[in-house]
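Example record used in the benchmark description.
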Amino acid sequence: MKAFLALFALIVVVAGQGQINFNGIGQIRGFACSTAASFTTSIDGTTTTARCTDNGADPSVRCPGCCRSVALAAGRSADNAAGFPSTNGRSCVCCIR
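Model output (structure tokens):
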């Protein structure tokens, strides 16, 4: 799973130019957290949107790597992002500074 997350983050960096959605807006200012974090990128020539909260996905597994990918897509360092399951156990909370 760690290898998949590392590959996913690498694809985001290589694809480079994608759109992000963070709390309904396309920009992250200062420090912010959201359960609606996502980004759009091209994977193997196909445009796709990755959502950090996704039905059927285990947020404890999906959140950390996805939130780091959102930060990379926003032009931030992955070290400036954290992801964790919300109290409902189904949503992913992404925090980025």
